[in-house]
Amino acid sequence: MSSIGYTNDAPPTVKTAVAYALSALGARWCDYAATGAAPRFRATPAALLEKARWVEAFATLKKEHGFDLLLDHSAVDYPDRTPRFTVVAVVENSTTHDVLLLKTRVADGEACPSLTPLFRSADWAERETYDMFGIPFEGHPELTRIYMPQDYDGWPLRKDFPMEGHLKFRD
Asked: What stretches in the chain show pLDDT beneath 50?
C-alpha cells in the first residue's frame, strides 16, 4: 500500500457547487486509488485544506451548502512527517445526508483554529483532541483536559507515547 495522493479534481459524488467552493479555498481532494483500499473504505469524499482556510471552509459549507452537523473531529499523528499532525473533521448535510471529510495539517506545538463558533459539538471534540494529542485549538472557550488529570505529563495518543505510560510508583 502507498500513501494517499491528492488531486485538484473532486470525486464525482461531490456536488459541483460544493466542489467549486472548496476548490476556491485551495482544497486538494484525496485520491485513495493508490492506497489499495477497498472502495467501501474510500467512499467518503475527503479534502485537504490549508490551516488558514480551515474555519472559512466550514463556515462556507454550513452557511451556503447546508453542512450543519459536525459528526466527528479528531487527529492523526504522523511523528516522522512535517507537519506532524493531521486534524480531521467530518460534516454532514442533515437534509441531503451528504458527508464530507476535511483535513488540515498542524505542526507540533502549533494551534489549529477552533470550530466551536460554528459547531457546539466541536467543544468536546477539540478538548478530547487536545487531551490525547496535545494539539491546542485557537479560540476554544475552555481548552482543558477532559480524560487525563490536569497535571498529567504527556499526550497518550501520540505514537511516541510509551506503551506503559508514565508510571509513578510509591513504596
From this structure: 1, 171
